[in-house]
Amino acid sequence: MFEYDPVMYSRILTYVTLGFHVIFATIGVGIPLMIAIAEWMGIKRNDPHYTLLARRWARGFVITVAVGVVTGTAIGLQLSLLWPNFMQAAGHTIGLPMFMEVFAFFFEAIFLGIYLYTWDRFKSKMKHFLLIIPVVIGATASAFFITSVNAFMNVPQGFDLVDGVLQDVNPLAAMFNPATPTKISHVIITCYLTSAFVLGAIAAFNILKGNKHVYHKKALHLTMVAGAIFAIGTAVIGDFSGKYLHEYQPEKLAAAEWHFETESEAPLILGGILTEDNEVKYALEIPYALSILAGGSPDTEVIGLNEYDPDLLPPLWVHYFFDLMVFIGMFLAAVSVLFVFMSWKKGWNPFNRPLAWMIVAGGPLAMLAIQSGWIFAEVGRQPWILNGVMLTEEGATTSPHVDLMLILFSILYAVLGITCVTVLRKMFKSNPVEHELEERGLSHKTAQ
Amino acid sequence: MTYEVIGITVLWFFLYGYLIVASVDFGAGFFSYYTKRTNKNHMIHKIIQRYLSPVWEVTNVFLVFFFIGIVGFFPSTAYYYGTALLIPGSVAIVLLALRGSYYAFATYGAEDSKFYSFLYGATGLLIPASLTTVLTISEGGYILNENGNVQLLYGELFGSLYSWGVVILAIVSVLFISASFLTYYASRAKDAKALELLRKYALTWAIPAIGMGIIVFFLLSQRNAEHFHNMLDIWWVFGLSFVSFAAATFLIWKRKNYGLAFVFVMIQYFTAFFGYGAAHLPYLLYPYLTIYDGFTNETMAISLIVAFIAGLLMLIPSLYLLMKLFLFDADYVEGKR
Ligand code: HDD
Ligand code: HEM
Ligand code: HEM
C-alpha cells in the first residue's frame, strides 16, 4: 500500500519515543520540586502530614523515574540511529549541552538513590531535606540542557557553513541562541505546572471519593497554590514565546494563526476550519490579539504566510495544537486561581465538587497541553530539522527496517505504560493513606 | 597527547566504568534468577537487593555518558554506527528498557513475580551479548560502505566464529566480575551462607572467563591481523592482566582478603580493556573511520574537556558520598539500617 520511506517512519518513531518520554520527563522535572516543597513544609510547620506527603510522592516517583530513564536512554540512542546525518552535523555544534545533560542526570541519579534510602537514617530532618535539593537542581538542569539543544534546532547559530563544512564553531553561542530564553523557561515552568496539577488531581480525586482526611486537603491546597503561581508564570512566558516567534520564526507563528496577509491590527483566530482556498470559517476572532501577542501593541505588523515559499511551510493543522495548548493554559490558571481565592475568602468552600472535578480534569489536560505544545513547536519547524540549514529528510537514516522498529517500540511503550499504571495503582491501593497514617500514629488529627 | 587521544581516553574510561558496574548488576540479576530456580534464593537475595537498589540508575548513566560523549567527540561515529546498527541498537534499547523498568516495578512496586525475575535474569545475559556486537563490528569486515550507503552484513556477523567468541567472553566475564564483587560484599555483610555460595560461583566462572579471553585473543588474529599485531607489541599489558587474574582467583580460593581480590579483578579487566583499545587505535571503525578523521572541531573538543573536568569535580564527591553511605557503611551493608 505504502512505499517504504525511512524518513517518514523515522519521523513517526521519533514522535512516538519523544511523546512517550516527555510524559515521564515532565513529571521527572517537576515532582522533585513538589516533594521538596512538601518536605520543607513538614519541617517548618512541624506537621507530619506534609512529611508523609513527600514520602508517598517520592515512592510513586521512583516508578516514573525508572520509565523516564529507560525511555530517555532510548531516545538518546535513537537520535543517532534514526538521524545519523543530523547528529553528525549537530555533534559538532551542540555536543556540549548534550554532554552536560548527562552530568546533570548523573548528579540527579546519585542523590535520588541516596534520598530514597535515607529517610530515617539521619538524626536531623534537615539533613535529609538537603538531599532533595541536588535532585531538583539536577532534574531542572537536564531539562535546561536538552531544551537548549532543541532551541538550537529552531535558531541554529554559532557556526559558519562553508561549502557544506562547519567552521568557526562556537558552542556557547550555539547553546545560548535567541530561542533559548523563552524556550527553556517555558518548558521548565510547564513541567512544574503539570506536576503540580497531576498531584493535585490525585488529591482532588481522593476527596471526591469521600476521603475526609485533612491530609488530602493539605495536599490539594499545597498543589493548587503552587499550580496558580506556575500557571500565571506559564501564561506570561507563553506570551514572551509568541514575541520570540514573531521576531525569529514568523512563519511558525503565522502557521499557528492561519495568518496569510501581512498586516497590522491582526486578529487572533481560535478554532475554525480552513477551506480549499485558504479561507477561515467558523472561527472565533479576537481583534488585535495576534498583533498584541506578537509585539505587545495592536499596530505591530505580523508577517503572513503568503510571503513564504509554499514548499517550505509547516502543515497548517498545527493551528489546532496551538489553540489547544493556550486553551488548557487558560483553564489551568482559572481553576487554580479560583481555588486559591476560595480558600482565602472566609466562608467559601474550595473543596466543592464541581471545582474538585475540574482539578481532576486538570491533571490529564496539563499533560495534553505538553503534548500539544511539543507537536506545535516541532511540526511548526518543518520541513527543517535545523531551521534554514538542514531539511528533515536530509537528516534521516537510509536504513531499511525502520518500520519494523516502529512496531517494536510501539509495543514496548504500550507494555511499559500499562505496567507502570498497574504497578502504581497496586502500590497505593495496597498501602492506603489511612493505613499509613495510623501506622505512624497520625490518624487522630482526622477532624479539623 | 592530542585532543583526539584525550577524547577517546575519556570515553574509554566511561566504557570501562560501565563494564564493571553493569557487569555486577547484570550478573546479580542472573544469579538472583538462577538461585530462585534452585531454591537458594533466600541465601543471596538480601545481599543483591541491598547493593543494587540505590545504584541501578547510576549504572545506566555510565552507558548514556558513553554514547552521548562519543557523538560529541566523534560526530562521524553517529553516521557510520548509527546507520549500521539500527536493528542491533534497537534490540539493545528494548532489552535495557525492559530490564530497568521491570527492576523498579518489582523492587519498589508490586510483589515479587516470577516473570519479573525471569526478565531480570535473562536480560542480564542478553544485554552484554548485544552490546558487545559494537566492539565486534569495529574490527572491520562486517560493515559495507558503498557510495554513501552504510550496511551491516548480518550473514557475516552471525556466521563468524569471532563474533560468537566475543559474545561468550562477554557473558562469562559478566558472571565472573559479578560473583567476585558480590563475594566481597557478602563478606562485608558478614553473611556466611551467601559468601559460600557466591565464592563458589566466582571460582566456577574464573576459568571460563580467562579461557575465553585467550581464545578470543587468538581468534582476532584471523579477523584483524593489524590489530592482533598491535596487541602483541604490548604483550606485557595482557601479561599483567593474566597475573592479576591469577592473584584474584588465588585470594578467593584461599578465602583471603576478598576486597583485594576484587581490586585485582578490576585491574585484570582494566589492563585487558585498555590494551585492547590502545591497540585498536587509531581506528574507530576499521578501516573506514579513525579518531582523526571523525573528530569534532577544536573549540568543541576543548569545551567538552573543560566540561568533563568540571563535571568530575562535581561527581567525585557525590559518588564518594554514595559509596560511603551504601558500600562502606558497615551497618548498612549488614542490614542494620
Ligand atoms: C502545560 C503545558 C503548557 C501550557 C499550559 C502552555 N504551554 Fe506553550 N508550550 C508548552 C507547554 C505549555 C511546551 C510543551 O513546553 C512547549 C513546546 C515546545 C516548547 O518550547 O515548549 C510550548 C511551546 C509554546 C510556543 C512555541 C515556542 C517555540 O516554538 O519556540 C508558544 C508561542 C507558546 N508555547 C505559547 C503559550 C501560550 C501563549 C500559552 C498560554 C497560556 C501556553 N503556551 C500554555
Ligand atoms: C535534543 C533535542 C531534540 C532533538 C535533537 C529533536 C529531534 C527531532 C527530530 C529529528 C525530529 C524529526 C523531524 C520531524 O519529524 O518533524 C523531531 C520531531 C519531533 N520532536 Fe524533537 N527533538 C528534540 C527535542 C524534542 C523534545 C524535548 C520534544 C518533546 C518531547 C520533541 C518532540 C518532537 C515531536 C513531537 C516531533 C514530531 C514532529 C513530526 O511529527 O513531524 N523534540 N525532533
Ligand atoms: C524537554 C524535554 C525533555 C525533558 C524535560 C527531559 C527530562 C528528562 C528527565 C528529568 C530525565 C530523568 C528521568 C526522570 O527523572 O524521569 C530524563 C531522562 C533521559 N532523557 Fe530526557 N528529557 C527531555 C527530552 C529528551 C530528549 C530529546 C533526549 C535525547 C537526547 C533525552 C535524553 C534522555 C536520556 C538519555 C535520559 C536517561 C538518562 C539516564 O540514564 O539517567 N531527553 N529526561
UniProtKB/TrEMBL annotation, chain A:
Alphabetic keyword roster: Cell membrane, Electron transport, Heme, Iron, Membrane, Metal-binding, Transmembrane, Transmembrane helix, Transport
The stretch of residues making up the signal peptide is: none
Residue ranges crossing the lipid bilayer per the database entry: 12-40, 61-82, 94-117, 129-153, 184-207, 219-238, 317-343, 355-377, 404-424
* Gene Ontology molecular function, alphabetical: electron transfer activity; heme binding; metal ion binding; oxidoreductase activity, acting on diphenols and related substances as donors, oxygen as acceptor
Q: How does it sit in the membrane?
A: Multi-pass membrane protein
Keyword match Metal-binding: yes
Q: Which GO terms describe its biological process?
A: aerobic electron transport chain
Pfam assignment, any one: Cyt_bd_oxida_I
Note whether Electron transport occurs among the keywords: yes
Which compartments is it annotated to reside in?
Cell membrane
GO CC terms, sorted: cytochrome complex; plasma membrane
Q: Which family does it belong to?
A: Belongs to the cytochrome ubiquinol oxidase subunit 1 family.
This one is known as Cytochrome ubiquinol oxidase subunit I
UniProtKB/TrEMBL annotation, chain B:
**Where is this protein localized, as stated in its record?**
Cell membrane
Asked if the keyword Flavoprotein belongs to this entry, the reply reads no
> InterPro entries recorded for this chain?
Cyt-d_oxidase_su2
What's its membrane topology? Answer: Multi-pass membrane protein
| UniProtKB keywords | Cell membrane, Membrane, Transmembrane, Transmembrane helix
Question: Is Protease a UniProt keyword of this protein?
Answer: no
Q: Give TM segment ranges.
A: 6-34, 55-74, 80-98, 118-144, 164-186, 198-222, 234-253, 260-279, 299-322
Q: Give the UniProt entry's GO cellular component terms.
A: plasma membrane
Taxonomy, superkingdom: Bacteria
| Family classification | Belongs to the cytochrome ubiquinol oxidase subunit 2 family.
Q: What is this protein called?
A: Cytochrome D ubiquinol oxidase subunit II
| Provenance organism | Salipaludibacillus keqinensis
